[in-house]
Write a structure and sequence with these properties.
Blueprint (H helix, E strand, L loop, with lengths): L9 H33 L3 H13 L1 H12 L3 H25 L5 H4 L3 H22 L10 H22 L27 H32 L3 H13 L1 H13 L2 H15 L1 H9 L11 H23 L10 H19 L1
Helix pairs in contact: 1-2, 1-8, 1-10, 2-11, 3-4, 3-8, 3-12, 4-9, 4-10, 4-11, 4-13, 4-14, 6-7, 6-11, 6-13, 7-12, 8-9, 10-11, 13-14
Length: about 350
């Protein structure tokens, strides 16, 4: 029997939001440890596993929210959930920098793969802006930009593997730099079936939580006529981004610093595919032209924050113990400023 969210009282809807958030939070903690073990056992490295496998896994609940919202023709909620999550998750990386007391996180976790993924994310975030300013056209029910996002993403994954295996330049290691050193010996894939199965079950649970969250948030938006962009960017996006916060802080605690940064950036690049899936789910034409400038505010915010993070990874500012880098301070200032602007205007 399907759950009727329309008949739920306010307290029950809020309980669904809190409950799904808690379950997503717990699953995120478990996913971090398993992703770190997968990185060690397979030899793929923390940056690659964090950026691809962990990033995609922790983003599943957000994917379900955006697609479900688009099917229900809540385009602002679908779009702002995706791009708002990118901004929130980038801000989480600044919080991790504060928690890591030894030095600036972007300095100690230097990795060529992270630089590449940041640049890739800037490109992916620019594509929807091009679509918005261009003509409203569709191809097989989707705007051409949605196909471009998928092509760029998978081309980026192929290039990312080559960048890691055959880098054209290498990071200068300093006294603070902490390289990615596997803690577990590699094993045959057949010996890891249980590990991958447990990982998959956690991902499935998070997907179900994403559906419940989308239904509750959609009902709240319609019933109380809330600003869909605000709900998407600051409620569903933050709740579905909790795995990224948990996995980032847990990875820093475990000393898996490349996994922490790779998980955030990789999750953000995967989140851009929310837009392709949402465009496919939206049945009335181009998703990008069914939005308002207010919706694109959070995309622009995420784009600026990603560019600042990329600059921080390149500069690798050396901060003393207990201090954070310039990029982390700017990321928090921009995110808090964006929230203030959204709330006031």
């Amino acid at each position: 029997m399907l759950i009727s969210f329309a008949d739920m009282p306010l307290w029950a809807l809020l309980a669904v939001l809190a409950g799904t958030g808690l379950i997503i939070f717990v699953c995120g903690i478990a996913l971090t440890g398993k992703a770190d073990r997968i990185a060690d056992r397979t030899g793929l490295g923390e940056a690659l596993v964090g950026g691809v496998l962990l990033g995609a896994a922790t983003s599943l609940s957000g994917t379900v929210v955006s697609v479900t919202s688009a099917l229900d023709e809540r385009t602002s909620l679908a779009f702002s959930n995706a791009v708002g999550g990118i901004a929130a998750q980038t801000a989480f990386l600044a919080l991790a920098d504060i928690v890591y007391r030894r030095a600036n996180l972007e300095h100690v976790a230097a990795e060529v793969a992270s630089l590449f993924q940041c640049a890739l994310l800037v490109l992916l975030l620019a594509v929807p802006l091009v679509a918005y300013t261009g003509p409203e056209v569709t191809l097989l029910g989707m705007h051409p930009a949605s196909y471009a996002l998928v092509a760029i993403y998978f081309a980026g994954l192929l290039t990312l593997r080559r960048v890691r295996e055959q880098p054209m330049w290498r990071v200068v290691h300093t006294r603070e730099t902490q390289p990615d050193e596997p803690e577990e010996a590699r094993r045959e894939l057949t010996g890891n079936i249980r590990l991958f199965a447990e990982f998959s079950i956690l991902v499935l649970v998070m997907g179900v939580m994403g559906w419940l969250l989308a239904q509750a948030a959609g009902e709240l938006t319609d019933r109380y006529r809330l600003n869909a962009t605000l709900v998407g960017a600051l409620i569903t996006a933050v709740i579905t981004s909790l795995p990224e916060l948990v996995t980032t802080l847990a990875a820093v605690h475990r000393g898996a610093l490349q996994l922490a940064i790779g998980g955030i950036i990789g999750g953000n690049t995967f989140d851009t595919l929310f837009l392709t899936l949402s465009d496919a789910a939206y049945q009335k034409g181009s998703l990008y032209h069914a939005l308002t400038p207010e919706d694109y505010f959070w995309l622009a915010t995420g784009l600026v924050m990603t560019a600042i993070l990329l600059l921080g990874l390149i500069v690798r500012q050396r901060s003393g113990p207990g201090r954070i880098g310039f990029e982390s301070a700017l990321l928090l200032a921009i995110y808090c400023g964006a929230i203030a602007v959204q709330a006031v205007f």
